[in-house]
Fold:
Amino acid sequence: MKAIVVESENLSLSDVPDPTPASGEVVIDVVAAGVNRADILQRAGNYPPPPGASDTLGLEVSGRISALGDGVSGWSEGDEVCALLAGGGYAEKVAVPVEQVLAVPAGVDLVSAAALPEVACTVSSNIFDTAHLTTGELLLIHGGSSGIGTHATQIAHAMGARVAVTARTQDKLDRCREFGADILIDYSSQDFAEVLKDAGGADVILDIIGAKYLASNLKALRTDGRLVIIGMQGGTTTEINLGHLLAKRLSVMGTTLRARPVHGPGGKAEVVASTLTRTWPLIEAGTVVPVVDRVFPLADAGAAHDHLNSGDVIGKVLLSVGD
Ligand SMILES: NC(=O)c1ccc[n+]([C@@H]2O[C@H](COP(=O)([O-])OP(=O)(O)OC[C@H]3O[C@@H](n4cnc5c(N)ncnc54)[C@H](OP(=O)(O)O)[C@@H]3O)[C@@H](O)[C@H]2O)c1
Structure:
């Protein structure tokens, strides 16, 4: 099969061996693959795959099941699915534990389904299972126009939370409003903690910036607020006044999806199952939609990375692989 191979950060479409399904795995003939910031970090040597994972880029795909490993039941060859991966998505075929496979939601086309696994599992596990967002609370989402941000906004809005977002331009903020954001903050000209003062502060913050925003995030939270950090685009190390945590009874948490084991508490199997229960009905009802910015051919994966890096993206960038 063909797959994208990385050599000294250069990407090429090359011949590699076909995967075979281990026990408990299925092989998917890939139709589309999602592009994630993690792929760009991995390409640069800064985000190695977890032990045992494919070293091919790609954390999510959609496609059709073409082979079943021993012990797999409930799926058949030809089934249209999408899947969460620890790696291997930039390829014509990928093997994946069956627990990480999700049926394509009714009403979603097979290519767009590749935009769902990473954002849906990341958002569901973080804002609900980790930060326990509830109806009527205020959620601040940094990077409201990103793949994660556009999905989180729709989900939180659908669940009856109020949503504040940060983004860099008015165009992006206008799109965020269409997805359900109530409070729009241009981070290039506004201080988000100051803006949120009028709303009494955020109950939950979904943060992708890390160190650079930590102090302001603590300031922006109200009493009993929860900060969940899922990205470190603004660095890993900083100093804070712990007094703010104590006085407002704040919680600061961090998670990553890729490093979770498949099984066990908090594992990928658990995350996928709860995402299917919580999020898939909202997608099938049309309340939450996949947001696809642009689709590139697999051979142009480098151009897809350049596009994601351009900052000119709303939602997800995909690679078209089969069909
Ligand atoms: N921990 C996990 O399990 C996990 C899983 C998936 C993704 N993530 C992380 O989630 C983030 C979003 O990923 P993605 O693939 O959806 O899209 P992405 O293309 O990585 O999105 C980057 C976003 O960062 C925003 N941004 C940059 N500087 C900012 C700042 N100073 N303040 C507020 N926003 C800022 C950008 O907004 P503008 O364009 O408006 O500047 C853009 O929306 C990434 O950091 C990714 O690593 C984590």
